[in-house]
Amino acid sequence: MGKPKILMALYAGGKHAKEEARLLGTVENELGIRKLVEEHGYELVTTDDKDPEPNSAFDENLEDAEIIITTPFYPAYVTRSRIAKAPKLKLCITAGVGSDHYDLEACNERGIAVIEVTGSNVVS
């Protein structure tokens, strides 16, 4: 059995993200959480390939994802069909504000928690 998986959908920041670590919501900087996640025994998979459903890298990683993290400005839409492909999913996190990119009814039916972490995608 592998490590529990956290799946993140973030935008590609390119050279700017590589030069500026404060661009947290990018695939390059991964909200600054990779070390913490790995220290706690999780596998972190980060992609900017979230569309189209069902043929994206995001979709390919749903089957064993326990946690999904996305942002309001580059959201991966977690639809009922995507939730159905994620039998281990327990938690959906918005790094920022909002939950309109999650099918809340489907999450509720499955007992999947949906939370937002306001301000987590910025550095003052």
TrEMBL record:
<dbReference type="GO" id="GO:0051287">
    <property type="term" value="F:NAD binding"/>
</dbReference>
<dbReference type="GO" id="GO:0016616">
    <property type="term" value="F:oxidoreductase activity, acting on the CH-OH group of donors, NAD or NADP as acceptor"/>
</dbReference>
<dbReference type="GO" id="GO:0005829">
    <property type="term" value="C:cytosol"/>
</dbReference>
<dbReference type="Pfam" id="PF00389">
    <property type="entry name" value="2-Hacid_dh"/>
</dbReference>
<protein>
    <submittedName>
        <fullName>Formate dehydrogenase</fullName>
    </submittedName>
</protein>
<dbReference type="InterPro" id="IPR006139">
    <property type="entry name" value="D-isomer_2_OHA_DH_cat_dom"/>
</dbReference>
<feature type="domain" description="D-isomer specific 2-hydroxyacid dehydrogenase catalytic">
    <location>
        <begin position="34"/>
        <end position="123"/>
    </location>
</feature>
<dbReference type="GO" id="GO:0008863">
    <property type="term" value="F:formate dehydrogenase (NAD+) activity"/>
</dbReference>
